[in-house]
Each structure stands twice: as structure tokens, then as C-alpha cells.
């Protein structure tokens, strides 16, 4: 599904003001694939004539200087001396995230260790930004690229004063053009809805709300770019930039890699969905290639592992307006629910000695294994997650929510069965139980339930 709009809505000569790459949550030093995904993404962007690359943080995985130096090495390998093959300057626009400013337990380390290892310790950022990127380190930075203004804020624990900066300088920005803000965390209650936790305590919302031409790029949630909620428009525009190093919330809600699902109930057994994601080969994340025009943005969504589009391009009008096409409520009302095929069936198996998908805390525990095929997209609205309910005598006894297996991947990669586990402890012994599965798209539109045949549980 997508919100691609006809180009005749926009006054454009077809040539963008800027070609911008956006790569969030690279996590160099985390997954072994991260450096490869970074280099591949930068080379793909270079081939398309990108003029600037923006990263809203978590470039490093554990706040180490060596991780940022590894990023710098890959950057200069693709853009030596910050230049493209034809000699054009490529602007690097970066802000730090919580993993870049990682300091847990480091206060117990000797001073010399902290100075040698800790990326955001004392004078380290000023030195590294100057040495590696030829840039000045600022808690709130500003750059102009092709006549467009970019502002960035560092991670909140470093205490950037974005509100003060915007009060002092916001009136200087051209109101007839978009300007861009870069920070790690989604601004509060914007893109990705429940995952927009606003670690900056609402500072970016307060700072940007007076400016309908503001466009905020952020990451942190690891939410995938298949999720239509990646673009939010209200007083300004807020865009979630995806996650480069992994498939984005690649695990079930009970084990997701960033935030708990808001309805998470800490059930006895996690519904682990895709075994390929579970401690094994990572499904790979995604990034953006943005063409910036005076009155709209074209967002191309790319998979970093599969080198495929994540879905149709999104065309986003700027400035944001209250009645615009990206209003969450307006879009939610137009969504179609995914549906199971007529021949879809639920398979249920009792596993008295446990199942290989059980997490460490439940290894060998008697359980029920439930699997079912992917629900089909309707009107381009693909399945995002499932609600799986165990029922006895028509009443719900346990409910789980889990991502659709492969549901965060490019369209031709996501058609695979989803699996989950129920502990026998959470089900009524000796009773007949059925399992009902409801497919939902990302705004919550629910398709018809698919039910299993009754299963008599061991007494």
C-alpha cells in the first residue's frame, strides 16, 4: 500500500532541489552485517547522485570511538574526502543516538579508559568530528545544503537546547522551502504512533510546531519502512527513517528490539515469529532516498539486504497542513483489512517436551505450537500483525499479538507462515481449545478471523 500521489499536484520542473540519503540506526559494532549494509546503501545512493547523507543516530552500537572510526572509514571509502567520484562535495549530516552516547557502567572505568574508548566523553566528540569529518561538534548544529537548511540535535542526555536554538534562528529560515531537523528519537506522538516515545520530553514538537515547513527525520524505534505510519503530518512533518542494520522490530512484540507494544501483557510464553530472525541471520533493514522539491518530497524506500523497494514511493506535500493526505485519522479511515485466502488453515500441535522456538526462560516447557499462512493484501494494504486468541467454551483464555513473519520485508519476500507458542500453563487442562487469528494492517484495520479445529488439551 502507499500514498503515492499524482505529480500534477505539484509545481515542479522535475529536477529536485536536493537528492538526500537517510540512514538511521546503523549500529556499527552490533550485528556483523552492519558494515556491509552501510557500504551497500552508500554505494547505491552514490550511483543515484546523492548530494547529502543524513543519519539520525545510533551510528555506533556501544558508544565506542572505534565504532565511529569504522563508520568514518566506510564513509571515506565511498566518498573519499567527502566527495563523489566526479569531485562534488557530499554533505554528511549526523546526530547522535542513545547507543552513540552509551555510558552504562562506564563511570566505574579508569579515566584513561574513558578518554580512549568513550565516544561522547569530554572533548572526544569535538576531536573526532573535526578529525574524521572536518566538522565542528555542536549540541545543536545547522548546515545549508543547496540553499536548504538542516538543523540537528544530539541525544537528549547531552542536553541540546533545540527550543532555544529555534527561538533564536527559526525566523531566518526561508518559509517557502522545507527545512529539515535530524534527531534520533521520534518526536512525541508523531510518526509510528505508539513508538514515538519522545525521549526529548516533547522539546522537538514544541520547537518545530510553529513551522509547517519543518520536516523531522528520526529513528530509534527500529520500525520498518513498510509501516505506513512512518510519515506523520500535523503542525509539521515527521518521518521515521527505518533501521539500516536489522529488519526493524524483527521479533514478536514480546521480544521486540526497541519498545514494548502498548498492549503487551507479558504473557507466559513469547510468541516468537520468524525463526530466521531469532538469534540467526538478520533479515536486514531499510533506508530512504529522498528527492526534495520546493513543495513536496518523494521518499524511495529501499531494503538494505535485498536491494529491493520496500513498497511504492511516498509523495509527501510540504508544508504540512491540517487537512493534508498524511493525517493519521484520514488515512486510517481509508485502509482496507488484509484477509486470509479461502483455503487458509491453522495448524496446531501439542508439544509435551517443548519446542525449539522456546526462549531460554521456557526451554523444554510443555506448549502448543500454532502456525498459519500469511494473510493476503487487500487494496495494497498488507498484513502488519496478528492477534492470536486461544478460546475455551467460546471465551478467550489467552491472547497474543505478534508481527506477521516477513511482514517487515519487501513485498515479494514477506509471504511466509507465522508461528507462535502458547505455554500449556496458560491454557485450561483437559478442555477443548480453538485458536483464532485476526490479521491487521498497520493502522489496525482487522480482517476476518481464521479459526483452528478444536484441540483437546492433555488433562
Give an account of the 3D structure.
The protein is of the alpha+beta class. It has helices spanning 34-47, 65-78, 111-117, 124-133, 162-169, 203-208, 328-333; strands spanning 18-22, 52-55, 91-94, 140-145, 148-153, 179-185, 214-219, 231-233, 237-240, 286-292, 296-303, 314-317, 347-351, 367-372, 385-392, 395-403, 418-423, 432-440, 450-451, 455-456. The chain has seven helices and 20 strands. A six-stranded mixed sheet has the order 3-2-1-10-11-12, with helices on one face. A six-stranded mixed sheet has the order 4-5-6-7-9-8, with no helix packed on it. It starts with 17 loop residues before the first strand and ends with a strand. Residues 1-8, 250-269 and 271-281 have low confidence and may be disordered.
- Give the strand content: 15-25%
- What is the number of helical segments per DSSP (H or I, 4+ residues)? 7
The residue fraction in helices comes out at: 10-25%
Mean pLDDT reading:
88
Question: Termini, distance in Å?
Answer: 46 Å
Radius of gyration: 23 Å
C-alpha geometry: globular
Largest sheet: 6 strands, mixed
N-to-C SSE string, H for helix and E for strand: EHEHEHHEEHEHEEEEEEHEEEEEEEE
Unreliable segments (pLDDT under 50, ≥5 consecutive)?
A: 1-8, 250-269, 271-281
Strand order of the main beta sheet, please? 3-2-1-10-11-12
Structural class: alpha+beta
Number of strands: 20
